[in-house]
Design brief:
Layout: H1 2-11, E1 15-18, H2 24-33, E2 38-41, H3 45-53, E3 57-58, H4 62-66, E4 71-74, H5 79-86, H6 92-95, E5 101-104, H7 110-121, E6 126-129, E7 132-133, H8 135-141, E8 144-149, H9 152-163, E9 166-173, H10 177-205, H11 210-218, H12 225-236, H13 245-262, H14 267-284, H15 292-300
Parallel strand pairs: 1-2, 1-4, 2-3, 4-5, 5-6, 8-9
Antiparallel strand pairs: 7-8
Length: about 300
């Protein structure tokens, strides 16, 4: 039995993980639990300590992390960070071996993913864009939705890795397609949170038992994963970040820009993008995106 386990462990690709934030840390730990050898690099020492405590290996640089890896996974905040870790003499493309698979799980512009895939091809490195949805809880529980752009053969190779991280795993099309679907996801989530926030303020000002109201609403057509995941945030005014307003602001910029480029109108999305932006300028950028409730409360003259 142990021999079987050892041989299956040995046949698994070695993984370099770059970016160990709110999402990256639990995701990399789930790969370790699934039996993968994970070498990680990030800028915060305490995050590297957390990785080694979970059974991973800490690297001193991107170059060191990726040098011998079969698969390199990146999970950083936005396009500029992806470009910073991918390009240049100290970056992934110069230091990963030819034939490696680079899976970028960050949420960035579709064009950045297309450009990265093109640059990597010149180095003999294959690329998938594979952004995720499900937030911190989805990362911890390994039930993320993973939307992928790239080649079918690369997706097939990566699928066992994705299965250790998420539940709904779909190849959406060529390079950049995963990011386009993620942009649509962020549009739906933001509008949904805004609608829930408006309902919460309306219910409270009407004197209704909020917990009871949200329970019954979530059991009908108004129910959603957003309401299930964020109900306690609303009830307890707990805005500890699972997904920060700052990042959702970035994502709303991505989706409004991408929609403009293809000629799609986002009238409601544009309004919610402005509400997210205003919340950020009011100093709430570091809070969870459920803090859209605070914006509605300010507009309604309610408590904040």
């Amino acid at each position: 039995m142990s021999n079987l386990a050892d041989s299956s462990h040995a046949s698994r690709p070695t993984i370099a993980w770059i970016g160990l934030g709110i999402m990256g840390s639990p995701m990399s730990e789930n790969l370790i639990k699934a039996g993968y050898d994970v070498t990680g690099f990030t800028l915060e020492r305490d995050k590297l300590d957390r990785l080694t405590a979970a059974g991973g290996t800490a690297a001193g640089s991107i170059a060191e992390a990726v040098r011998d890896a079969d698969v390199v996974i990146t999970m950083v905040p936005a396009s500029p960070q992806v470009e910073a870790i991918a390009y240049g003499p100290d970056g992934i493309l110069e230091n990963a071996r030819s034939g490696a698979l680079l899976i970028d799980m960050s949420s960035i512009t579709p064009q950045t993913s297309v450009d990265l895939a093109g640059a990597a091809k010149d180095k003999g490195i294959r690329v998938l864009d594979a952004p995720v949805s499900g937030g911190e809880a989805g990362a911890v529980e390994a039930v993320l939705s993973i939307m992928v752009g790239g080649e079918q053969a690369d997706f097939d190779q990566a699928e066992p890795i994705f299965e250790a991280l998420g539940k709904t795993i779909v190849l959406c099309g060529p390079h950049g397609s995963g990011q386009t679907v993620k942009a649509a996801n962020q549009l739906i989530v933001a509008v949904n949170i805004q609608a829930c926030a408006e309902a919460v303020v309306f219910l409270e000002k009407s004197g209704v038992d909020l917990r009871a109201a949200l329970d019954v609403l979530n059991g009908g057509l108004a129910g959603s994963t957003v309401l299930t995941r964020k109900k306690d945030n609303f009830l307890n005014r707990d805005f500890k970040p699972g997904f920060r307003i700052d990042l959702h602001h970035k994502d709303m910029g991505i989706v409004t820009d991408a929609a403009r480029n293809v000629g799609a109108a986002l009238p409601v999305g544009a309004v919610v993008a402005q509400l997210v932006a205003s919340l950020r300028t009011q100093g709430d950028g570091g809070l969870d995106h459920s803090a859209l409730l605070r914006a509605v409360e300010r507009l309604s003259g309610a408590r904040v």
